[in-house]
Amino acid sequence: MTRIFSRKDTILFPLLLALFLLLSACSTSNDKVDLEEDLKSVSASPQETIPTIDQNSTPIPKPYVGDLELPVIGATGFTSVQLELKDAASQDSETVQLLEAGTGFEILQEDGDWWLIQNENSIGWVLHKYCFINLPDVIPSIIYDNTNTYSAKYVSSAKSIPNITGETLYQGKTFNNRLGKEEFIVPVLYSMSKKINLAQEYALADGNSLLIYEGYRPYSAQQAIVNELTKLATVDFEVGAGISTSPWSINWFIATSVSNHQVGYAIDVSLAKVNSKEEIVIGDYASIEITDYIEYTMPTPIHELSLASATFQTPVSAMSPTAWKNVKLADKMNEAAINLQTYNTKAGLTPLASEWWHFNDLDALNEVKDNSSDGGYILSEIYSVIPPSNNKY
Question: Matching PANTHER family, A to Z (predicted)?
Fold first, then answer.
């Protein structure tokens, strides 16, 4: 019989068999690992394989789209007359309380002709046509310099007016939380603010800016100016002639009764050349701030109360939106003053015949004729806050 296995073979065979089984086990294990990795890849969720977008990322500030540079929400408003505070945006709704003229508040919401407002004592709805809005809160690009709140510039025939020139006539500057800086309080009727914004757009397009010296003026300040100017005119012939030479009279330069400044449809404004500006961010909104400027040389210094400041050669009705177009400009009206007039009249404002710096909104006046302000209050407190996210309202 042939011998198949030797003793040596009987030793090698088990070793070879063990090696074969070991290699098979390793191969099976690797296949299993590869299969598990493949299964993991197939079963991975979309969130694990697709980059996610951070929903809480800070939005890129963009300019506000509307009739003003910033939304009215969060701005300060004031009642110009006593107003009923309603519990809904309707004249038929219940009256919550009466708000006295000159009451300040934060604007929470706008709904048609109504604002939802609040202050430390009240919350409710008011008709906004009878309300002022604080201009710096909604048109921050304008340059504001209410000199009457720290050093009045009033003169007459280039002569100082005792107890007026260089004096503080009323308080009107405070820290503004919305703007993050000290700023003047410059109230006008809400509807007028939209025309002022349009005038500023025209000015900015030419590399210029409005320079607003005053909006609302308290009646007490008005009367102080009248009294002191009248006294001066009686003892100084030149001053007297400057405010009363026919066809002019003192009322053309400073109203002896309630004026358009008290009602809230007037601004005193000059024009400045913008040397530099920078983008600012207020809440979610991008706006601009003038960082350097120079006021143009105008026909006279601001608040020169005399016929030297006349816009036109003759008086023309201040109550007509078009009569001014039919009279000749005064000889002193220079290019800067004409540009200022163009910006404001294109925006719907009306120039005053006796003061190159004065513009009225007759539409705003007509809206409040039935119930207009007498200016018997000083507006020195604001409620301005950063406007809410543009996704909130």
Answer: D-ALANYL-D-ALANINE DIPEPTIDASE (PTHR43126)
